[in-house]
Amino acid sequence: MSAQAATRRIRAAIRTRYALLPYLYTLFRAAHAEGLPIMRPLAFEFPGEGWALGVDDAFLLGPALLVAPVLEPGAAERRLRLPAPGPWYSAASGEAAAPGERALAVGMDDVPAFLRGGCILPLKARGRAVCGGAALRAPERAAEAVR
Question: pLDDT tens-digit profile of 95-109?
Answer without folding.
Answer: 999 999 999 999 888
